[in-house]
UniProtKB/TrEMBL annotation:
<dbReference type="Pfam" id="PF00462">
    <property type="entry name" value="Glutaredoxin"/>
</dbReference>
<feature type="transmembrane region" description="Helical">
    <location>
        <begin position="32"/>
        <end position="50"/>
    </location>
</feature>
<keyword id="KW-0812">Transmembrane</keyword>
<keyword id="KW-1133">Transmembrane helix</keyword>
<dbReference type="InterPro" id="IPR051548">
    <property type="entry name" value="Grx-like_ET"/>
</dbReference>
<keyword id="KW-0472">Membrane</keyword>
<dbReference type="InterPro" id="IPR036249">
    <property type="entry name" value="Thioredoxin-like_sf"/>
</dbReference>
<dbReference type="InterPro" id="IPR002109">
    <property type="entry name" value="Glutaredoxin"/>
</dbReference>
<protein>
    <submittedName>
        <fullName>Glutaredoxin domain-containing protein</fullName>
    </submittedName>
</protein>
<feature type="domain" description="Glutaredoxin">
    <location>
        <begin position="70"/>
        <end position="126"/>
    </location>
</feature>
């Protein structure tokens, strides 16, 4: 579980280090800017920046009932962040599975991605898209 937060914690520690180092050097403005930039980056790469994840089994159950797509992702993945950002509020309309928190989700991704854990992987209506163009996923949400 800690692995999910490693990048976010590292970015925040870097924010503190750079901020304090610049502050000690007498550069108050630079210290504040560096701290804020890296603190915001820490928030963006954290698991909290994504909709609440469900287990693979629950996502498949919900998807079968409501027809919404399943998005497999992992914290710190720049392609997942790009997809999440491009979806905006519509991201909540999809079922998100964190493959680092759910081994069955990781197995589902490996099954459709030639044995790799390539994310984001989107499964909609039985069709898998590995690292899809965000515009295609937006079209799925619009349906």
């Amino acid at each position: 579980m800690m692995r999910r937060w490693r990048l976010s914690i590292g970015m925040f520690v870097l924010a503190l280090f750079l901020g304090i180092t610049s502050l000690v050097a007498g550069n108050t403005g630079t210290a504040v800017i560096l701290f804020l930039v890296f603190a915001v980056l820490a928030a963006l790469v954290s698991p909290r920046a994504f909709p609440k994840s469900v287990t693979d089994a629950r996502a498949k159950q919900l998807s079968a009932a409501d027809g919404r797509a399943i998005v497999y992702w992992r914290p710190g993945c720049p392609f997942c962040m790009r997809l999440r950002a491009s979806l905006g509020r519509d991201a909540r309309r999809l079922h998100w599975v964190d493959i680092w928190a759910d081994p069955e989700g990781a197995a589902s991704v490996r099954a459709v991605a030639d044995g790799n854990e390539t994310v984001p992987t989107v499964i909609a209506a039985g069709t898998a898209m590995v690292n899809p163009d965000p515009s295609k996923v937006r079209e799925l949400v619009a349906l």
